Amino acid sequence: MPHIQQLDSHVADLIAAGEVVERPASVVKELVENAIDAGSSAVVVEIRRGGMALIRVTDNGCGIAPEELPTAFLRHATSKLRTEEDLGKIGTLGFRGEALAAISAVSRVDIVTCRPGAAEGASLHLEGGEPAAVEAAGAPQGTTIVVRDLFYNTPARLKFMRKDSAETAAVGGLMQHLALSHPDISFKFIKDGQEALHTPGDGKLDSAVYAALGRDFAHGLVPVEGRGGETAVSGFVTGPLQGRGSRSMQVFFVNGRFIKSQLLTAALEEGYRNQIMKGKFPGCVLSVTLPVTAVDVNVHPAKTQVKFAREREVFDAVYHTVLDALDSRGAANAPAARRETVPAAKPDFFQTMDARTFREQAARQAERPAAPARPAWNTEQRTSAPVADSGTGGVYRSAPRERKVPAAFQRTPIRPLGGALGQAPSSVTAERREAAPVQRREPVSAPAETKERTPETRTAAPEPPARPFVPAIPEMAPQAPEQVPGQTALDAGEAPWRIAGEVLNTYIICEDGSGNVWLIDKHAAHERINFDRLMAAQEPPMRQTLLSPVAAELGREDGALLLENLPLLEQLGFSCEDFGGGAVLVREVPADIDPCDVSATLEELAECLRTGRSPDERRENLLHTMACKAAIKGGWKSDPAELRVLVEKVQSGAVRFCPHGRPVAVKLTKYELEKMFKRA
What we know:
Blueprint: H1 9-20, H2 24-37, E1 42-48, E2 54-59, H3 69-72, H4 99-105, E3 108-114, E4 121-127, E5 130-131, E6 135-137, E7 142-148, H5 155-158, H6 164-181, E8 186-191, E9 194-198, H7 205-213, H8 215-218, E10 222-228, E11 231-237, E12 250-254, E13 257-259, H9 262-271, E14 284-289, E15 295-296, E16 307-308, H10 311-341, H11 355-367, E17 386-387, E18 397-398, H12 425-435, H13 448-453, E19 497-503, E20 507-512, E21 517-521, H14 522-536, E22 543-553, H15 556-564, H16 566-571, E23 575-580, E24 583-590, H17 598-611, H18 615-630, H19 640-651, E25 665-668, H20 670-676
Parallel strand pairs: 1-8, 12-14
Antiparallel strand pairs: 1-2, 2-7, 3-4, 3-7, 4-5, 4-6, 8-9, 10-11, 11-14, 12-13, 15-16, 17-18, 19-20, 20-21, 21-25, 22-24, 23-24
């Protein structure tokens, strides 16, 4: 049996560092939270190579006294806890006293700090957790910490680091959350010498949302504010029509701390029930405030999960606040729109009156002076002379009325096209029709009521005798299909099933030879056909180049995830490039994808890349999404030929389940139908 011994202090520090420092974003999180707890109003974060080469965090907070600098890097050293009672009412972001010790154990650290009103500051250098001597240094008020060569003394951890772009995106996402949780602090994020984020710090949440999450997300947000018991909820949510393809834009804060909570997610989405499209998720920036004694933040090493003392109260507060905001938004807009679009009724429009009122009104109208006579040239009447119509085949109409013009306004008569001077239009038309060699079909007879009303017009313009239809290609018309040279007619035979119709523009009704009735989900069937085709394809799908590239706003983490998997997206038919700020510029998409669905498709692809484990599983998840986006949607009107192909695939047994495992068809036997109608 091995002997029990105490670990070396350096090994113990490395183990503790592994629990706190997982990646460069973990370092940034701990350092920025310390800066916030120090009362800073401005924080600047700069990284290089995703934070592996350099992390610099500068704040204008209260600073650290020179004599306390070495103590700050010891394990379990903190200024935020004094007694065990303080563990039950934690109101600060950092409190364990392990962050600085863990960071210094796996990197090279330099710190420069200065207290308010001090003549000079102090600096300290640490390498592998070993501090050097404290030295005096000139510095502005606040603290600057520089972390270099992260994990230089733990090569095993370096193997699990991702690409620099992915680590940079993780830090960028963290800075977004920190900026949203504290809109009263100005945050600046610089990556590889370029400014990627800068919030104004004016205390307005909408300003922080605009700067951190972009204009497209900030546009159309619905403000929410409510309270349930001791729980207060405030922030913004997206409208029901602005649903997203994943939950990546759901941001929750509890007492100013960014957390991930299934409870809050469920409460948010419950408020959108029956208001958002299926498969879409709402976005939000919600801040939940409750007493510090009602929440436990010490349940996760990274402090991204909390435990509520009264979960039901928190759930109800979020649910009712979101629901009330959505309902009031709809109620406020609808009446205003109605008032603007509905005109006011005229006072005498469809007015009801009794007989006496009607007689009095008629008498007043009779006493009014008569209207002046019209000019001579406006008093002509419409003639009823029939005019033959060269194209209606026996249908007659009234001749156009002729306007009488005074002599002063008369001009030289215009010669009719194709006729002599003064020739009537009807005679010209009849003359042209008799002389024209154009082949015409049999004229269409006029309606019975027209013939009875004007019997004399039946002989006014005699129709030419009917002539046989001359085909455009005479040699093709009399031949049967099998007589056409170079072609052979194939008799497909009658199918053993019959399409009876379609209901709800979604389900196909089919009857087979055994008397069974099938209900087929056309979307699920088409989705499975697309998925099998993509899986069996040996070459990338056919692409379509967009006339104008689409800039998809996906967020920093999703955008970096897609850019990290560009070769895989190329295989699927997407041509993408980095557009900055979490946006991806798309130039080419698969031919089956509607360009309007590019952003939603990329959101779902990012979610598939996040959840897939192995490369094969990731590829299958991506193909699932592409097959779904390219399939016929429920509610669309489909061509009968499309329905026939889908039914043929289902009846042949090639399609049974959709890629997500849902059934494609449901069978009802003749016995089951007769049993429903009490015939069996």
